[in-house]
Amino acid sequence: MEQPQLLLSTKNNFLDLQAQVNQQIKNHCHQLKLIDQSNEKVIEKLLKQQEKLQMLVSKLDYYQIQPQVSYLDLILKHQYKYELKLSEDLELPCYRNRIFSIRFNLMYQDQICINQNKIIVELEIWTYDELPKKVSHNNQGESIYKGCQQAFIKEGQGRLNKIQIKEVSSHFPRGQFVLIIVPVNDHGVIGNQKLGEIKKEWIKPLVLNEFVVKAKRFSNRHVPYYIRKDGTVNMKPI
After folding, report:
1. Cβ(128)–Cβ(176) under 8 Å?
2. pTM, two decimal places
3. Which end of the chain is more exposed for a tag (fewer CB within 10 A), N or C?
4. Domain CATH for 161
5. Which range marks the domain in which residue 24 is found?
């Protein structure tokens, strides 16, 4: 009687062991399934990231191929009906914190154009390099301007009075600025040339290259040069 009971007990032990092994196999299969699902999600995310990187690389390639065009190039190449020109030679260099003024005219085919609407222009300063950058504040966050920065064009004539620039050009590339007088407001006119209504988009800004601002004027070191009315630079006034 003892031997059959022993066999039965052994069989039950094997059955319990088999059940445990089966459960372990089932648990491992479940874990592997979860790992597979997790891996699928990871792979899916990686594929999406790969697509984004490919798009980014394509954009970078595009911008590297495209020639970079500066703001000043766009101004010079655009076609305008009118333009701003100096009405008198401008003596340079300017000096920091010393007042100066700029007179200019609104021109149409080398004749002064009498505008009826008020046109507001604004003084801008840009760096003088291959890709110019607009300069409005110094490294301390202070405005480089003091005094007048805007003016009206009335009956074809304008003047920026009491201009003061507080930053010297030697702190910037090539030691020079590009000074621009650009129309910023035409008071919302529709644009009727017969009525003398001139839209700001029709007017070519005045661009003055080789604009130098020095720290202090010394009488024995002051060597003037002039930007002439036609935009050329000369050591002597006309």
Report:
1. yes
2. 0.67
3. N
4. 2.60.40.10
5. 1-66
